[in-house]
Specification:
Blueprint (H helix, E strand, L loop, with lengths): L11 H9 L3 H36 L6 H14 L6 E3 L1 H12 L1 E4 L2 E6 L2 E7 L4 H4 L7 E5 L2 E2 L5 H8 L6 E7 L6 E6 L1 E4 L3 E6 L3 E6 L6 H15 L7 E5 L8 H9 L6 E6 L7 E4 L11 E5 L6 H11 L4 E4 L7 E7 L6 E10 L15 E2 L13 E2 L19 E2 L10 H10 L19
Parallel strand pairs: 11-12, 12-15, 15-16, 16-19
Antiparallel strand pairs: 1-18, 2-9, 3-4, 4-5, 5-6, 5-7, 7-8, 10-11, 13-14, 13-18, 17-18, 20-21
Helix pairs in contact: 8-9
Length: 444
């Protein structure tokens, strides 16, 4: 199988028997006996599965599909592990490859599963979902009048995809409002993961919305264009906005962090066995030439976003502003299962920031916490519950933290976190406990 890399009480008699069988040779035979017993238990359980499978095939009220039964069994096995492991049949696997390439057909929403419903993590800029006003935290309860409850995430996503220019109807549950329907027209979604502009002639603003195969190239282009627009001696620094970025490919997270770091570890991944530990280091040098950096994060910043934020923070390369991040500190390895059999996305490791901290179910706390002014109609749904609230999540290495504000004002002039970032880069103290960055910053 090929892996692809985009967590004595007993009687006196018992005590006497224990003394009688001590020693290396005896321990060897005990271990073999235990292994044989465990294997027998496993085969017994597999026999039970086979018996249930045959009973369903022969006695169910309608003739079931063998393929659907097997897929259902696999899905049940994998999804019972944690919220992020999943099986993809061949169709779902091809669609995932299209998504990570940065171009696919659909509505343009990043989603997850919560309490049996599809939850919007974030709408992608300039897509049908964003234009229709879908918001982070919205719950989708029906797709084309069919209940989402009982579907896997892959099944629900597949129902939202379809031919370009066809319509689909979603029923939205939004806290503080009655459930309502919204109809969207599917488009070819060309995810442009990096957007940028300059502010006031002295700061470069770069927003990264996802980590797909185009992200690093888009970031390099943004940095180069900003440097053309602002002379080096007048460039106060950069703001990198990772808010409501749900993550993506690990290699892209490493490349993005490398854009701002000349050297040093970016992230390590640690699996069940010590020999599976991997370390990823910066490569390529700091394209910004040491200019000060502020990174914006919030409750919707997850996975690859947290890898970048954690690396830049631990190397003292950036000041983090906003609210605590999502807390997804696990790595999923995509394991193709052979022609026509799809692939397995299996949680194989936890990741750790350069200082050795796991953010699983904890998130990353910003240096400067800035809460947004939330409009009345958004109150009650401006927070993202986070990894710690997800059923079956991997446990934290510490006290778990859940819930963090994820609201970002649509108008930049109302964006308090962005304003704090600009002030920090211009040397204005926005929090007495955190000093503004010096004009030059070199990672440790």
């Amino acid at each position: 199988m090929r892996k692809n890399i985009l967590f004595l009480v007993g009687s006196l008699t018992g005590a006497c028997l224990t003394l009688l069988v001590t020693g290396p040779e005896s321990e060897h035979w005990i271990a073999r006996a235990k292994a044989a017993a465990n294997a027998a238990d496993t085969y017994s359980e597999l026999n039970l599965f086979g018996e249930v499978f045959e009973r369903v095939r022969s006695d169910y009220v309608e003739k079931p599909s063998d393929t659907n039964l097997i897929e259902g069994a696999i899905n049940g096995m994998v999804t019972s592990l944690d919220p992020h492991s999943r099986y993809m049949n061949d169709k779902a696997w091809r669609e995932m490859q299209e998504t990570t390439s940065g171009e696919f057909g659909g509505l343009g929403i990043e989603v997850t599963m919560e309490d049996g419903l599809v939850k919007v993590v974030a709408p992608i800029d300039d897509t049908p979902a964003a234009k229709a006003g879908l918001l982070s935290g919205d719950l989708i309860s029906q797709i084309d009048d069919e209940n989402v409850q009982g579907l896997t995430l892959e099944q629900a996503v597949n129902k939202m995809k379809g031919a370009v220019n066809t319509k689909t109807k979603l029923k939205i549950i939004r806290k503080g409002k009655d459930p309502f329907d919204v109809t969207l027209t599917r488009e070819i979604i060309k995810v442009k993961p990096v957007r940028y502009h300059t502010d006031g002639g002295d700061i470069g603003y770069i927003r990264i919305t996802s980590f797909n195969e185009q992200t690093t190239d888009g970031l390099h282009k943004a940095v180069a264009d900003i440097q053309k627009q602002i002379p080096q001696d007048k460039l106060a620094g950069y703001v990198v906005d990772l808010r409501n970025n749900p993550g993506g490919l690990l290699d892209q997270a490493v490349s993005v962090a490398s854009t701002f770091l000349p050297r040093g570890e970016i992230v390590s991944t640690r699996g069940r066995n010590p020999e599976e530990t991997q370390r990823f280091t910066a490569h390529g040098g700091d394209l910004t030439k040491g200019k000060p950096l502020v990174v914006l994060i919030n409750g919707g910043s997850a996975s690859a976003s947290e890898i970048v934020a954690g690396a830049l923070h631990d190397h003292k390369r950036a000041t983090l502003i906003g609210t605590r991040s999502f807390g997804k500190g696990s790595v999923q390895t995509i394991i193709p299962l052979g022609a026509g059999n799809g692939a397995l996305a299996l949680t194989t490791a936890r990741y750790y920031t350069p200082s050795g901290h796991s953010i699983q179910a904890l998130g990353i706390q910003p240096d400067i916490e800035v809460l947004q002014d939330v409009p009345d109609d958004m109150k009650g749904r401006a927070d993202m519950k986070g990894e710690a609230s997800m059923r079956g999540h991997l446990s934290a290495e510490g006290t778990e933290k859940s819930g963090s504000q994820s609201y970002v004002p649509p108008d930049e002039k109302d964006d308090k976190a962005l304003g704090a970032a600009y002030n920090t880069l211009r040397g204005v103290v926005v929090n007495a406990k955190v000093q503004p960055q010096p004009k030059q910053s070199v990672p440790n």
